[in-house]
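*** Residues and shapes ***
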Amino acid sequence: MSNILKSKRKESSFQIYIDWLKLRQRLTEYVSSDFNDSKISYNEPNSLKYPNYLYFLFDHERKQLLNLIDKIQDNITHANSIFPTDLAEYNYRRYLQSLAIGDVNNLIQELEYVSRNYNVKADKYINLIPLFKSFLTKLKGWRASTKRYLSILPKDQQKLVESELTLLNNEVGHNL
């Protein structure tokens, strides 16, 4: 236990994971309550004519959201378990971090889609979007902090990584 008050402490390196678990729990509760068979409804007038289509849409969306949740957690966990000692491990860690970032972006798009197209309490999902965008910023910072492992790599590999990052920054136009 730390002797420093929690309000005075810096966030731990696992804070991303703690934040993710809170978001995951909240979203999972929403999906499990809103996307069950008793609440099937779609904002399309002709959907009542095709009930099997409606079940398919609901089932697809439920699976899509839950799969994204699982993928994000897997990528964060796997990336955080890699402490690079060579260039391949360094690149693989950054790759997994990038996948997590991409999956959060996909999740945000899915939440926007759900809030517009399904008869669910859209404000629940809309209110999650800023939280996920804030989490996305933290993920990008976490990925950027992977540069601290450069000092462990041999000098020739350090230069290679730095030149690749510079090239990517110039192509994309912002700090990766």
About this structure: The mean pLDDT is 79. The helical segments are 15-34, 51-80, 87-117, 122-144, 155-172. DSSP finds five helices and no strands in the chain.
